[in-house]
Amino acid sequence: MPHFVIDCSENVIRLKSADDIMQEVFNAAMSTGLFVESEIKVRINPFSYYNNGNSLNDFIHVFGYIMEGRDTDQKSRLSKAIVTSLNTILPEVPVISINIKDFERATYFNKTMI
Predict the structure, then answer these.
(1) Distance (Å, whole) CA 60 – CA 11
(2) What are the pLDDT digits (tens) for 42-64?
(3) CATH code where residue 91 lies
């Protein structure tokens, strides 16, 4: 169920492969014990055009979407695990951040629920 969408400057995937970056996010999410492995989805969007504080500094921002029901401490640990993990493999990237949003169980629907 959790979806992690990674936005980053294009140069970031020259420093580490997209597969390596996505696997790092996957592994960090798994390490929290909050999710079932088969349900974790990770995608990456490298940008060639961006304005990052009126600069072209490299960046990574992860948008995490998870099913409601986790408390603030769990979401905080998830955020810290992912940013720490990305910082370990890409210490030269000056901006690494994440935000977590909840899916509402009442309004979430997918094909398997038909």
Answers:
(1) 10
(2) 999 999 999 988 999 999 999 99
(3) 3.30.429.10
Would you report the helix, strand and coil content of the chain in percent, each value rounded to 5?
A: 35, 30, 35
Domain that holds residue 67: 2-113
Q: What is the pLDDT of residues 16-45, one digit of tens each?
A: 999 999 999 999 999 999 999 999 999 999
Distance CA 66, CA 79 (A): 12
**68 closest CA partner among 2, 113, 6, 10:** 2
Distance CA 78, CA 50 (A): 27
Give dist(CA 17, CA 8) in Å, integer.
Answer: 12
pLDDT of res. 65 = 98
The CA-CA-CA angle for residues 55, 60, 64, to 5°, reads 135
As given in the structure block, the two tokens for residue 68 are 């409601």
How many domains are contained in the chain? 1
Enter the pTM of the model: 0.95
Dihedral angle computed from the Cα positions of residues 2, 81, 52 and 59, in that order, rounded to the nearest 10 degrees: -90
